[in-house]
Design brief:
single chain, alpha+beta, 3 helices, rod-shaped
């Protein structure tokens, strides 16, 4: 009977200490990731990656002649074409007289 109580006390101590160890892990403060602050600065390259050169019908910006492979920050649909522009200013200039400027776009050949 004496051994029975010793085994019982031993099991009780294991349960108590085991519970303390498990509880210690639960009491730690969980890591909460806070969202990064919103970046409101304007970046010239952030929109350039939004347009793929493969989507465009032109090889050059029709307003300034810059190759669209150098970067596109705006696009416009004109007739059946999707035209890329290096800036919104070039797009605005094109929209004033698109028919006259379309030849400068160096349109890609249809496959």
């Amino acid at each position: 009977m004496k051994h029975f109580f010793a085994i019982g006390r031993f099991c009780m101590m294991v349960l108590i200490f085991g519970g303390m160890l498990l509880n210690a892990g639960c009491e730690s403060t969980p890591s909460v990731s806070t969202p990064p602050e919103k970046d409101t600065t304007m970046k010239g390259t952030s929109t350039a990656s939004a347009y793929s050169v493969d989507m465009l019908s032109n090889q050059k910006d029709p307003s300034c002649g810059m190759p669209v492979s150098a970067g596109v920050s705006d696009t416009a649909h004109y007739n059946k074409y999707v035209l890329g522009f290096c800036s919104s200013e070039c797009k605005a200039e094109f929209m004033k007289n698109p028919t006259a400027m379309l030849a400068a776009a160096e349109l890609k050949k249809d496959k």
